[in-house]
Design a protein that fits this description.
Largest sheet: 8 strands, mixed
Oligomer: single chain
Structural class: alpha/beta
Helix content: 25-40%
Bound molecules: zinc ion
């Protein structure tokens, strides 16, 4: 066996292999990395003859795949704690949005904030995710809503990944809200998103996938379809904010367009769940938004299970509906509010989150050849990761084979 870069011994692994409904635990084994990839996993037999530049005794710590937060809006100007106060005295999200608040308030703040300032604020928030084991994060634009401001957000997202501390997947979300200057020209804005904005992001090398907000307070299925088709024609994977506040047929539309994921899904019906299963579209559940908005209608978890739709869980970290910077609290909420088992929730932030980003061939489970992204936890049982609130159980992260 060629010399390993690092070998971690005496680990309890939660492998999250696809074929293991119990998460595929392996007790008191070793895991080794070479050139950033997992090169060996197993007990004494598998490790016989292994030599490593660095050997780390984990003394029974648990190791999971590094967490993948597959849906965030981490880059933005200002915050919306004022709207939080309004909602607490009975104003609805839709009402606040109609009165010029909501996403459009963050758009004004994001346009006005300098790039360096956006980067510093987002880096602080990202740090909270990393402190809870995140090694891959998806970050959306969508608070610029003009070409230069959207590119500014995507450059900030790119810079956040340039440190090597975390891998960042960048999503263009031009179709997030109608900017005020297009209030009388909806169609022109949709065309901007489907053409010049997309092409500018591609030309600058700043975009990995495309998302849209299909909702009564945002964009229709027709408008959304226009942008999804344009993205696919350019070879970009698509995703969708779907059926969060009403059933507009958005999850079915996502499936129709072969979307990697449909996200939120509180109002999604059974037929759309079947279409998602057929299309291989992942269901991304966002319990932070459900909690903050005091929703009562839950996503169709039983139907998703029955039809075999992979379920992912994410923070949806954003300044309005989900100011949640704790991936572990998102896991707890997915269990308590949506009834996921701890292993289902953990799979939702590892292997199934990788699927939602089109990266499951490369990461999301502990298997030979995959990226060696690990989260090392000081816990007695994996379920503790979903059970404690505020426990800070992370010991170390490993990103592409390197201890962080
Ligand atoms: Zn979102």
């Amino acid at each position: 066996m060629a010399t390993l870069d690092t070998l971690w011994l005496n680990a309890n692994l939660l492998t999250m292999r696809e074929d293991a409904p119990d998460g595929g635990p392996l007790h008191r084994v070793g895991i080794g990395a070479r050139d950033g990839r997992i090169a060996v996993i197993g007990g004494i037999d598998a490790l016989a003859g292994a030599i490593a530049h660095e050997v780390v005794d984990l003394d029974g710590a648990w190791v999971t795949p590094g967490l993948i937060d597959c849906h965030t809006h981490l880059v933005f100007g200002g915050d919306r704690s004022n709207e939080f106060e309004l909602r607490l005295v009975g104003r609805s999200y839709a009402e606040i949005a109609k009165a010029g608040g909501g996403i459009r308030a963050t758009v004004r703040a994001t346009r006005e904030t300098a790039e360096a300032e956006l980067l510093a604020a987002a880096a602080g928030r990202l740090g909270r995710l990393l402190a809870e084991g995140v090694t891959t994060v998806e970050i959306k634009s969508g608070y610029g809503l003009d070409v230069s401001s959207e590119l500014k957000m995507l450059r900030v997202a790119t810079a956040l990944g340039a440190t090597g501390e975390v891998q960042v997947v960048r999503t263009l979300l031009g179709l997030h809200a109608l900017p005020d200057e297009f209030a009388a020209a909806r169609e022109a804005y949709v065309e901007l998103c489907a053409g010049p904005m997309l092409d500018a992001a591609l030309a600058a090398g700043l975009v990995d996938m495309v998302d849209a907000f299909c909702e009564t307070i945002a964009f229709s299925t027709g408008e959304t379809a226009r942008v999804l088709a344009a993205a696919r024609a350019r070879g970009l994977p698509v995703r969708l904010h779907a059926d969060q506040l009403s059933d507009m047929g958005a999850a079915a539309l996502a499936a129709e367009h072969g979307a990697l994921s449909a996200d939120h899904l509180e109002h999604t019906g059974t037929a759309a769940v079947r279409a998602m299963a057929k299309a291989g579209t992942v269901a991304v559940l966002l319990p932070g938004a459900f909690y903050m908005l005091n929703e009562t209608k839950r996503p169709p978890v039983a139907a998703l299970r029955r039809e075999g739709v992979p379920i992912a869980v994410a923070t949806d970290a954003n300044p309005g509906s989900s100011p949640l910077l704790s991936p572990l609290l998102a896991l707890n909420m997915a269990c308590v509010l949506f009834g996921l088992s701890p292993i289902e929730a953990l799979r939702g932030m590892t292997l199934n989150a990788a699927k939602a980003l089109g990266l499951a061939h490369d990461r999301g489970s502990l298997e030979l050849g995959k990226r060696c992204d690990l989260a090392i936890w000081r816990i007695g049982r994996p379920a503790e990761l979903c059970y404690w609130m505020g426990a800070a159980p992370l010991e170390r992260r490993v990103v592409a084979g390197r201890m962080r």
